[in-house]
Inverse folding.
């Protein structure tokens, strides 16, 4: 069993578009390009808002302005071969950011997407909560990533 994951993710908007970043992920046993919200793992000793600020800067070169506003939390499990490998808890925040996004660090590209584009293009197992939040709102979602 791997280490559990604690994450912080930024929901950055411009008009009716959401900022997403391109990553490569192993899904269903093969590497796939995914569009994800900027964010990632909270490091040991780091607070959620500190991780959010760091991840946004590392992945997009953008600076977080002011304080983030909590949107929702996602709790999930990654299952392989019928056994839980780890659990995750990811916190999502509305973030205002300065600057124009540019792919940086491990990110391959950045893209502004409408809710319809998110629905059409974001189908990694962990995207279900963000898509559901866009459709219906809510504060707590549970996900399952089965390989």
């Amino acid at each position: 069993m791997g280490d559990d994951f604690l994450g912080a993710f930024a929901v950055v908007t411009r008009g009716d578009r959401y900022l997403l970043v391109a990553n490569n992920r192993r899904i269903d046993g093969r590497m796939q390009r995914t569009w994800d919200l900027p964010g990632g793992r909270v490091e040991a000793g780091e607070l959620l808002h500190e991780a959010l600020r760091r991840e946004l800067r590392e992945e997009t070169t953008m600076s977080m302005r002011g304080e983030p506003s909590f949107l929702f939390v996602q709790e999930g499990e990654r299952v392989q071969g019928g056994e839980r490998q780890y659990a995750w808890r990811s916190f999502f925040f509305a973030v205002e950011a300065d600057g124009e996004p540019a792919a940086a660090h491990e990110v391959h590209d950045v893209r502004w997407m409408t809710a319809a584009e998110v629905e059409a293009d974001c189908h990694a197992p962990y995207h279900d909560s963000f898509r559901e939040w866009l459709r219906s709102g809510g504060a707590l979602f549970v996900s399952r990533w089965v390989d």
